[in-house]
Amino acid sequence: MLSIACAVTLPFLEGTAWEGLGSILVKTGAVGFLALYAAQRTRGLRAGLFVVALALGATGDALIELSFVAGGAAFAASHVAAILFYRRYLRPEMSTVTSWAAVLLFLTVPIASWLLSRDWAVALYAITLGGMAVAAWVSLFPRWRVGLGALLFVLSDWLIFSRLGPVDLAPLPDLLIWPTYYVGQMLIATGVVQTLRRFRR
Known about the structure:
Elements: H1 2-9, H2 21-41, H3 44-63, H4 68-87, H5 96-117, H6 120-137, H7 143-162, H8 172-200
């Protein structure tokens, strides 16, 4: 509930006296409280890796307001932690269609990121982003939650990258970056936590 409260409050801080440090704290709290939720509801080293991924994401939310590069580095680290976590829960068997879809997704994310931003540093970061999305999609976690959440995360980043390059998607970035990012993180966090709790039973 605290996470949702932060997520809903953030847009209303724009243009107010709370914009700035207040916005950073609230934005960080949105995913930070998801990390606390995951830490409270799960156990073990494997689950701890997922908590680290969420915590690094919250750190990225704070840092990106101060430095785009520092924030991107934190998110890249978050994606690497998530990839390592998802790899421990791979589906035992995957169809040929699923395998090719995973390859296509992995290639599409950095290519589209470069086309939108025309920035090679962004494209390199997007390799970790695409890896995270693929790892979530081929994991045992429900695709309609965790897989969809990862794709929403990708969409949110694409909207951010569109602000850097020649493709003008206005007003979509202003309207959708935060909702797609937060809903994606919420779906990922709740989908992973609830599935892990079922595994324990």
